[in-house]
Design a protein that fits this description.
0% of the residues lie in helices and 35% in strands. The strands form two sheets. A four-stranded antiparallel β-sheet has the order 5-3-2-6, with no helix packed on it. It has a two-stranded antiparallel sheet with strand order 1-4.
Length: 112
């Protein structure tokens, strides 16, 4: 999936992530994902992955059963992100890995 040319110049305090989501069983295929950032096992923060950048809010992209979506994007500034939960102070260079969980959205957020 290619999204065209974006001018992606977030501030230096905004970390990036690369996520690969494979739909193994959900017919709806509109994943909602939450990432937890770690520094060598120490949780730093939790934040929603902005999947909707691919196809608009609130549903995000359709990932049909048996297909995969790869997305490289950055997290919003913490003060602009209501999903952000800080566990400890951090800077982007301290992030060693992410753990991401995804689930189907409420039916009210699935396009008709």
């Amino acid at each position: 999936m290619t999204l065209g040319n974006f001018s992606c110049t977030p501030g230096a305090d905004q970390p990036w992530l690369r996520i690969t989501v494979t739909n193994v069983h959900d017919g709806n295929g509109y994943p909602v994902c939450l990432a937890k950032a770690f520094d060598r096992g120490q949780p730093l923060f939790d934040a929603d992955v902005r999947m909707y950048v691919v196809s608009g809010e609130p549903s995000g992209p359709q990932v049909a059963s048996g297909t995969t979506l790869r997305l490289t994007w950055y997290f919003d500034v913490a003060t602009d992100d209501p999903s952000y939960v800080q566990h400890t102070s951090w800077v982007p260079s301290e992030i060693t890995r992410y753990f991401v969980t995804c689930h189907r959205p409420p039916l009210s957020q699935v396009p008709i």
